[in-house]
Model the fold of this input.
Amino acid sequence: MAYGKFNLIIKRAGKYQFEEMQDPKISVSYMVKWIDGCHYQLKPNEDYFKQFPQAPKNALITVEITSVKKNSYTLAAKYNFSEEVVTGEAFKID
Done:
């Protein structure tokens, strides 16, 4: 799992989310389940566990959108296997 400051490219296609990190080069995917307009859950797919074999097989990430701007939103991500909360800002790129 990557902690600290990093850039991530996120692409969504239906109920799937694909993430690419540049340094180090890592690509993973998730199933996305929206809970409501401000909360969604990410369930890692098998490629995630190949990159992060120490992650528990029941790993689940719950994301809360904490504020919205014109072309971005801030978020807080909580993991069901860690006390740490990861915060960040997601920008829309056309």
User: Anything to note?
Assistant: The radius of gyration is 13 Å. The first strand starts at residue 8 and ends at 13. The chain has one domain: 8-91.
